[in-house]
């Protein structure tokens, strides 16, 4: 609650609703531990006003002529008149009667008894139960006045104590309000594979982990897609006869008769492939080894930087050689540039490291997709057999998506990443939290492994954004770009606003 005097200079802007009475319960005025100072002061003031009205002289007491002429102006003068009368007359001179009182207290004298030695009807808050169980509602005037005075002294002492507590709490509340709000600094972790193994902010590790997880899921498919593919195993394969060996497929050691996951399906697939290979190998060894039917060739290729490696696998029966001593490999990029390189197919058949082709000094753009073609011609002089075929393989060059790191402030996000080998154009895009509205973008052109840094500025504090990098081959503007996964990043919130109100109960915060 904001104090009414918060805007007045020289005043202490602490609301009484923010200070709690920590003293004991005082049943006679219905005061409880835990009440606010507003309630405490109100109850004390009400009690004090009741006592004050009870002790008011004007209009409450009409003194008989035997005590003094006229009426006293205050309670002190009343007591003094009574004491003076006692001293001058002793115990005589007062008559029986009733003195006018307030609604709270009635002062009554009994026959033959002179005030101040008279009985007084006490206010309800002064009544009590004696040791015999009797409710005492009357007292001698002197005793009653003494009790009232003592009660007033206790109230004054309690108010003073409350003021001490208020002053102490005021200093603490001011110190608490002036304490800057703590800024949360997330812990660092040391990643093992997603980033360099050095202490790194948790947000950066999480962003890198999410990016690589999205890449992994894009490569493997979603769990639903994987389960759907697992169910594609040939119907009745468990009871099918093996192509190599005796018995059904289910009798192969390690065979999973029930597919529960991708591991089971993958294991069965390899066992099936091995069974097929064994059967095909038996056919190759026992059927037409000297004719063209005995030739089985396959080709794959991979790009390692600027080195293209061509792997030729399969079977060539003994006696076959390359027509003319060699064959030609043709390499063409998606922009239409091509080269031709000679190769001895028989010599590089099933060669573990493949046939290397250095593209660094050619017109081939290694940042584009590459098509590798070969039309192998093999001849066997002993059988006069000449065999030809056509092999083709496409190397899809997507350009690896970089994994950026981020540093956020209240109104900006700074990002850094390292480009891959080759000539690529990298476009960093800033979207809203839903990833649907493009807010800003920055473009970087790379001809090799290079570190880039950029900043998205003019942002809103404490707001979530999504950032991604789009990779395009620089030399092929018509080629479709690679849209890398989104990273979620937030700007730093503004500092906490100043406190304008404090609850009536609170618990300390231990830092």
Walk me through the structure.
The model is unreliable at 90-112 and 499-511 (pLDDT under 50). This protein is an alpha+beta fold and 511 residues long. It is built from 6 helices and 26 strands. It is 24% helix and 25% strand. It has 4 domains: 16-175, no CATH class; 203-286, no CATH class; 295-395, Sandwich (Immunoglobulin-like), CATH 2.60.40; 399-490, Immunoglobulin-like, CATH 2.60.40. Strands 21, 22, 24, 25 and 26 form a 5-stranded antiparallel beta sheet that branches. Strands 1-2-3-6 form a 4-stranded antiparallel beta sheet. Strands 13-12-15-18 form a 4-stranded antiparallel beta sheet, with no helix packed on it. A hairpin with an 8-residue loop joins strand 24 and strand 25. The chain is elongated, with a radius of gyration of 50 Å.
